[in-house]
Amino acid sequence: MIPLGAPGSNxxxxxxxxxxxxxxxxxxxxxxxxxxxxxxxxxxxxxxxxGDGRIEIAWDGRTVEWGAxxxxxxxxxxxxxxxxxxRSLDDLYRDRPVVLGHGPAITTAALRPxxxxxxxxxxxxxxxxxxxxxxxxxxxxxxxxxxxxGSVPYPSGTVGDVWVADGRAYLARRSAGGISIVDLDAGPSxxxxxTAESLFTQDVKVDGEFAYVSHEPVTGxxxxxxxxxxxxxxxxxxxxxxxxxxVAVAPSAHNLWVDGDRLxxxxxxxxxxxxxxxxxxxxxxxxRIDPSPSIAHDIHLRDGLLFGSAMxxxxxxxxxxVASIEGPVAAVLGEVDYxxxxxxxxxxxxxxxxxxxxxxxNVNAPIRIYDVTDPGEPxxxxxxQPRLGTVPHNFQVRDERFAYLSHYKHGIEVVDVxxxxxxxxxxxxxxxxxxxxxxxxxAPSHEKEQDTFQGAWGVHWTEDGRIxxxxxxxxxxxxxxxxxx
Length: 485
Description:
Blueprint lengths: L1 E2 L13 H10 L7 H4 L16 E5 L4 E3 L5 E7 L6 E10 L2 E7 L2 E3 L6 E11 L2 E13 L3 E2 L1 E8 L8 E4 L2 E5 L6 E5 L5 E6 L9 E4 L2 E5 L11 E7 L7 E7 L8 E5 L2 E5 L5 E5 L7 E6 L5 E8 L2 E7 L5 E8 L6 E10 L3 E6 L5 E6 L6 E5 L7 E6 L9 E4 L4 E5 L5 E5 L7 E6 L26 E6 L4 E6 L3 E7 L4
């Protein structure tokens, strides 16, 4: 087990009592994030701990556009370039200023709209030798390098995750129950629907002619017999139930993953389960993996390796679990523990299966990147800082070039991952445009922090390069990246 100083993410993104639990947890005074802030903490403008260093930020004071990769450069003496730590003094991650990056230069890509005090500090051995600050003003814009090609509106609160297969989007409908099937080439427009009484669906995955539909029993949605319903969707206009996982076997399904003849289920509040779906109509239970004292939330499966993301409440720690499910008994190969009250939300393996990207569902949280060449020893190699002022949700790697982030009230981001250890923003689209709500003081960041868990939930893609996103409040969106990067 590898103890880490950083956090994880939040849980369900469901309605009612679960959303309220998430909100209350985020309003707690959270511990310092040692991963990001092991450099000795903020020094403040003009700090000089020893007199043995000097640093100065070169910036001309101009206004930049939101997401623009304008460069801030620091000149310095008294330490090497790897000692330069950049922070936003006006944005908090947990209870510390956000660490924007390390090295002689950073870009303004992550800075929120408005004016932000940016600090560059020389930090050696945990001691700040010197620091300088400058103010960067960012002008809001709704999108950059991403255009909207179509949308299908759905009532607020009835949209969860989305999966794309064969030119169709399969949309989890949460409190509306079941899934909607949308033809992406015809409008887009809904062409099919599956629902049932007392069915609460957060996730859906599709493999061939079968769709696997989650059910997460919450207040008012008790009594449906399956935690996973298996549908034949060969005729997308008329989905047909062919089988399922009974709630007696797996009592809840928040998140699903299908890889070959294996189905993995993350049951919110309990554990991970694995099933043989060689016959999709009759899933056979194989394994159960318990991340206690953390609480299973999300799952990713690839080539016999399971990557589980679990959250921690109270004194419990969030946890990333790596397990082999190839043998007759599941074997935990490695774990990464996070501090108490951390919410390890989701993970995604790179196309070459070397790097694992882990999202944390907290305000201003970074995406953490691990080298999992040795699955038993996940090794941190870098972070990606999404745009500040709201909560990242699901980070999904399309190929060796691009990844997509569903970013709640910031919409979606397009991220270049051609350098896996140093991803960079190359486009975005704000599905909830503007600062349309008032701040609540969770951190001195963007106004969109209020009612944090709204906006873009999931993001996936088509083979021809379209980006498909689900927005909890507005419905389904279809985008195209238009940048040259």
